[in-house]
Inverse folding.
């Protein structure tokens, strides 16, 4: 377990042998546990320095701060040129003064990672990172003590916090790595030292911040570029996507291709959607064929299965272990089926949205019996691809939805393209907010209807699901 002495040493102080255990690391004082480490970060909405006292009241052993604070705790200056430290002054509760709290958090995480004998699996891509992380962790946990990134803690703050959750008994860590700007994934790799890198796909998600598709490709490639050489390093790449397949030229690691193409090292065929019962398909590997059925929803989920299985194979698991992990009830992540008004079924996929994932959700909706209702909101951070991406979704919705409900300014492009693709006006509803959608759906849907609700999280269509859900 991480100790206070290790924290001080990682931040540039001397090795003082302080064996006070650190029970966890936190950036929200309300979540701080007794014996924990609070990191005071200055954010857009709040400054963590305003909550140091609250963290100590909740039992924090230490806080990392970047400015002097008066309070009933010890203050130790760890900035360059600080005077020699007196171990007695570091007794909890103690505030550790550093030049930059975020950099200190990252230094601490990198230091702790290097003390541990753990193999790290990094996962990146425009769509499917979280589901792949969850399923991969399920597979690996059949043999190894495995830690995974909680939620979507996949950036320069979340990933260090995850690394600090590693214990001496962990054997594998599955880490989601997000990308917004060039160099970000390289930083995350410097902190975590991944052995295996999984790339799901590349699309126009986050184009607004990245600037161009080429920048996104370069950013995602940083994962495979930072892997160790073969045989220790393994780059698991989507053969079906040329932009990902070509990343093989950028790594010294062993390349492991997965995909639907028979040329892939691990491939799938005869994929059949079973609606809410999951999917079934054939897996092909080294001349062997397996019949597999898993609880993930939608035919597109076969790629998630291939990624998790590829990691399992790269880590030496037997097929029996891999299949058991793939069939875990915890495998399904974001899209959840709940009961709706008057016997309707609601598919809640309101966590995030991009053109690729929305098209996949519409494909799942098409597999299900009943009147199909697509409730679609704005997809954010698409940059120059914004209008085109929404129109792609509108064209597909026109092909398979019996009723299309769009919510938001950007979503109007979905409705426009649906009309252009031949969907009659009477089957399209254009709304401005969630309240209108709730009122409409309460009147419009009932027994036999299947309602897909999907948008970027910022559109907050989760309110629609929360208001319409009927307890089982």
């Amino acid at each position: 377990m991480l100790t206070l002495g290790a924290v001080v040493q990682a931040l540039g102080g001397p090795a003082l042998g302080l064996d006070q255990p650190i029970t966890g690391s936190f950036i929200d004082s309300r979540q701080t546990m007794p014996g924990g480490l609070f990191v005071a970060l200055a954010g857009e909405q709040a400054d963590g320095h305003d909550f140091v006292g609250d963290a100590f009241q909740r039992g924090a052993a230490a806080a990392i701060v970047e400015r002097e604070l008066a309070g009933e705790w010890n203050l130790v200056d760890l900035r360059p040129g600080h005077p020699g430290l007196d171990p007695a002054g570091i007794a909890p509760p103690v505030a550790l003064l550093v030049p930059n709290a975020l950099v200190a958090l990252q230094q601490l995480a990198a230091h702790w990672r290097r003390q541990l004998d753990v193999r790290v699996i990094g996962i990146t891509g425009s769509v499917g990172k979280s589901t792949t992380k969850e399923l991969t962790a399920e597979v690996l946990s059949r043999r190894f003590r495995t830690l995974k990134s909680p939620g979507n803690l996949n950036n320069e703050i979340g990933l260090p916090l995850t690394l600090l959750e590693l214990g001496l008994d962990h054997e594998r860590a599955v880490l989601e790595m997000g990308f917004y700007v060039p160099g970000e994934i390289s930083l995350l790799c410097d902190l975590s030292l991944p052995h295996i890198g999984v790339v799901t796909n590349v699309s126009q998600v986050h184009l607004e911040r990245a600037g161009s598709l080429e920048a996104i490709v370069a950013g995602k490639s940083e994962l495979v570029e930072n892997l160790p050489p073969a045989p220790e390093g393994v780059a698991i790449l989507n053969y079906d996507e040329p932009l990902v397949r070509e990343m093989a030229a950028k790594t010294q690691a062993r390349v492991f291709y997965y995909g639907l193409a028979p040329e892939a090292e691990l491939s799938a065929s005869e994929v059949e959607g079973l609606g809410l019962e999951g999917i079934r398909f054939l897996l092909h590997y080294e001349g062997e064929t397996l019949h597999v059925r898993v609880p993930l929803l939608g035919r597109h989920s076969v790629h998630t299965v291939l990624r998790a299985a590829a990691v399992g194979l790269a880590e030496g698991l037997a097929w029996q272990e891999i299949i058991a992990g793939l069939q875990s009830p915890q495998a399904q992540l974001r899209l959840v089926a709940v009961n709706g008004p008057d016997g309707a079924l609601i598919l809640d996929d309101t966590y995030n949205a991009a053109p690729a994932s929305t098209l996949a959700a519409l494909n799942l909706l098409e597999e299900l019996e009943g009147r199909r209702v697509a409730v679609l909101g704005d997809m954010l951070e698409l940059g120059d691809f914004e209008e085109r991406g929404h129109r792609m979704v509108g064209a597909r919705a026109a092909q398979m939805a019996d009723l299309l409900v769009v919510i938001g300014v950007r979503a109007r492009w979905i409705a426009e393209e649906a009309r252009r693709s031949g969907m009659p006006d009477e089957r399209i509803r254009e709304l401005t907010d969630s309240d209108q959608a709730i009122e409409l759906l309460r009147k419009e849907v009932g027994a036999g209807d299947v309602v897909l609700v999907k948008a970027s999280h910022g559109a907050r269509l989760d309110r629609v699901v929360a208001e319409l859900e009927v307890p089982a």
User: Anything to note?
Assistant: The mean pLDDT is 90. Residues 386-400 form the longest helix (15 residues).
